[in-house]
């Protein structure tokens, strides 16, 4: 990681840390709390990844920090101030929020979507217009092209960029990002991750970023909080330390399956033919094909996107070599996880 550049670019004005003190949420009618006495400190300008399974309380925690959900007990400090005592406009100034389902308003233009919070904060029209142009440039969308379009006229990846621009609109020192790139395909996701990483090196916001993708956590995080049920922190450390020394079996299972996924990304269908035999080409052909040189991970993605359990495999000369079934991928997966050398 390029830490030297990062530190040079750190603007002093954004030095706002976050502290959670025994933060707890007990939803009415639920047996156990969704979030149970979570305490952590996040340094100014630090990007912390919350990594944990669905239902472990990540969104609840984010929404408490943002005051969309009232904590049952505990405290949240932002820049040393108790969030529960901030007035709503001060809260909007301090915290930008990007949610999983993008959340752009379909009947508003891109410019209107991005200008939402500045408008609430009472900025002048000219200042808002200027800021919108600046932000569209920042996230790599030409303002003259995209300003007046509607969300439905943009691709998923472009909409996510607008989501990020909107959260940055009032230049908040803190950003909460709840699986912001979760809904995009793997290639778009990687683009967005790389762009966002570059952006963060310039902006040095204090960020909590929720993900259930270990690779994303490793790629983006200064530190990763591996969470289990009720947001209990299983390990909170740098990606390097977590990879090198997982605290327990639970953390190791994230690291382990991520390593297997990485291996699947490095294993081509052609490599896999040393272990499995392709079946006959699907009849009728489904039109879902991958190349022999595609990775197994690409093959899985193609199946998931098409909702099929089989893909046809095309050889370099354009002919169909056979089909790869989901069951075969599972077999490869099991072997890769067991660390079998011929499945890399
Ligand atoms: N409004 C709600 N009322 C009752 N239970 C809820 C509510 N929202 C979430 N929960 C429960 O709290 C737990 C944590 O949910 P959530 O914070 O959404 O998890 P995550 O974002 O990690 O998937 C889950 O068991 C969920 O069912
Ligand atoms: Mg969630």
TrEMBL record:
**What SUPFAM superfamilies does the database record attribute to this sequence?**
P-loop containing nucleoside triphosphate hydrolases
First-tier enzyme category under EC? translocase
Going by the UniProt record, its keywords in alphabetical order are: ATP-binding, Nucleotide-binding, Repeat, Transport
Domain called ABC transporter: residue spans: 18-255
Spell out the GO cellular component terms annotated for this protein, sorted alphabetically and separated by semicolons: membrane
EC number, UniProt record: 7.6.2.9
Tell me the Gene Ontology biological-process terms attached to this UniProt entry: glycine betaine transport
Q: Name one GO molecular function term.
A: ATP binding
Pfam families found in the cross-reference section:
ABC_tran (PF00005)
The UniProt family comment states: Belongs to the ABC transporter superfamily.
Report what the protein is called: ABC-type quaternary amine transporter
User: To which species is this protein native?
Assistant: Kribbella turkmenica
What lineage does the source organism belong to? Answer: Bacteria, Bacillati, Actinomycetota, Actinomycetes, Propionibacteriales
């Amino acid at each position: 990681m390029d830490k030297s550049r990062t530190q040079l670019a750190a603007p002093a004005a954004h030095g706002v840390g976050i502290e959670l003190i025994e933060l707890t949420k007990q939803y009415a009618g639920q047996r156990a709390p969704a979030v149970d006495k979570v305490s952590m400190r996040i340094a100014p300008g630090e990007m912390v990844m919350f990594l944990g399974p669905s239902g472990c309380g990540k969104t609840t925690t984010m929404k408490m920090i943002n005051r969309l959900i009232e904590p049952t007990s505990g405290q949240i400090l932002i820049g040393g101030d108790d969030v529960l005592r901030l007035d709503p406009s001060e809260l909007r100034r301090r915290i930008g929020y990007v949610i999983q389902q993008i959340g752009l308003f379909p009947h508003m233009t891109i410019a209107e979507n991005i200008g939402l919070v500045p408008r609430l904060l009472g900025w002048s029209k000219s200042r808002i217009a200027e800021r919108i142009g600046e932000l569209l440039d920042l996230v790599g969308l030409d303002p003259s092209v995209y300003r007046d379009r509607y969300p439905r006229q943009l691709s998923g990846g472009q909409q996510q960029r607008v989501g990020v621009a909107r959260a940055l609109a009032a230049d908040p020192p803190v950003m909460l990002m709840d699986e912001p790139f979760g809904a995009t395909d793997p290639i778009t996701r990687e683009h967005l991750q790389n762009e966002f990483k570059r952006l963060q090196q310039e902006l040095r916001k204090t960020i909590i970023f929720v993900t259930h993708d270990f690779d994303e956590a490793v790629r983006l995080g200064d530190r990763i909080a591996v969470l289990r049920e009720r947001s209990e922190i299983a390990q909170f450390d740098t990606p390097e330390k977590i990879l090198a020394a997982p605290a327990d079996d639970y953390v190791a299972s994230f690291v382990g399956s991520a390593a297997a996924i990485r291996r699947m990304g490095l294993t081509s269908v052609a490599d896999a033919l040393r272990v499995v035999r392709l079946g006959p080409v699907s009849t009728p052909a489904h039109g879902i094909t991958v190349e022999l040189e595609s990775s197994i991970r690409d093959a899985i993605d193609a199946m998931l996107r098409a909702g099929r359990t089989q893909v046809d495999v095309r050889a370099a000369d354009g002919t169909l070599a056979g089909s790869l079934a989901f069951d075969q991928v599972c077999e490869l997966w099991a072997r890769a996880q067991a660390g079998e050398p011929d499945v890399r």
